[in-house]
Amino acid sequence: RRLIDRLPPSDDSGVRKLVGQLALVVAGEVRLTDALRAQVDSTVARLALAARQDEAAVRQTMAAAILSEALNDLGYEAEPIEKTLFAEGGMVHFHEAAWGDYYMRMRVSPERQQINFNLVRAAASGEHANPHRDDVRIENAWCSESGLKKLVGVLKDRGLDFTMVREIKAGSLPVQVVSPAEVPLQGRRDTSAEAGSRRRQAPSVSKSI
Q1: What is the rounded radius of gyration, in angstroms, for the C-alpha atoms of the chain?
Q2: CA 26 → CA 29, 45, 65, 106, 204, distances in Å?
Q3: Is the pTM of this model over 0.85?
Q4: What is the DSSP string of 182-197?
Q5: CB-based contacts of 188: which residues, under 8 Å, 6+ apart?
Q6: In angstroms, rounded to a whole number, what is the distance separating the alpha carbons of residues 92 and 116?
Q7: pLDDT digit string (tens) for 121-144?
Q8: Angle 38-39-41 (CA atoms, 0-180°, nearest 5)?
């Protein structure tokens, strides 16, 4: 009977079959074998692992939702955040309107349990002039109380806690220059700007009766 109690309620056909076998043992119709005990142990371990994985998946999905909402509430424009970001890893860009062609690139590495932020500038080939003054200005804005620290504080308040392990001083390294194609958010902004330009340039239509 104690072996039956170790098995949680489940719709798993294997668990139901095992409970049926144990019921026969309780009724005295069959003997309790070592193989049956081992099967109970392995089934309990399998169900416990599945429960932990389900709980982890829920936490990871919630973490993605918390991040998305926090960026939106703080006024950032961000790429869509997949619910699997904290499970499978990936990269997301977000941006403030005042940053121009600068974007914050966020990389999530679940296997290392790390989140990395680094500033990038989207520039087409031949447009890689050194805008060092702008680099430092944007980096200083991000490293200020209203940038990274505020985002971290909001995330912690909402249940997404992490520890800062390294922070590189603004201006100590050159900002990475990337192709606009590497920043989906840049393409979305360019498309919106082109659409707005076409609307403004559209000729007026008059109708006479």
Answers
A1: 28
A2: 8, 22, 48, 57, 87
A3: no
A4: G-HHHHHHHHHHHHHH
A5: 79
A6: 11
A7: 998 766 555 666 788 889 988 988
A8: 65
* Percent of the residues in the chain that have a pLDDT greater than 70, as a whole number: 85
d(CA 30, CA 176): 71
- 139, burial (CB in 10 Å: exposed 0-12, middle 13-18, buried 19+): buried
Greatest alpha-carbon pair distance for the chain in Å reads 98
Higher-scoring residue by pLDDT: 77, 160: 77
Of 67, 188, 173, 187, nearest to 120 by C-alpha is 173
Q: Nearest to residue 167, comparing CAs of 147, 150, 143, 151?
A: 143
126/131 Cα distance (integer angstroms): 13
Q: Quote the strand ranges of 42-112, DSSP E.
A: 77-78, 90-95, 102-109
Task: Compute the distance between CA of residue 14 and CA of residue 70 in angstroms, rounded to an integer.
Answer: 43
| Cross-strand partners of 117 | 106
Give Cα separations from 143 to 31, 43, 63, 171 (angstroms): 69, 50, 23, 11
- What is the rounded distance in angstroms from the CA atom of residue 183 to the CA atom of residue 93? 7
- Residues 159, 70: Cα–Cα separation, whole Å: 11
What is the edge-to-edge ordering of all strands in the sheet holding 90-95? 77-78, 90-95, 102-109, 114-122, 176-178
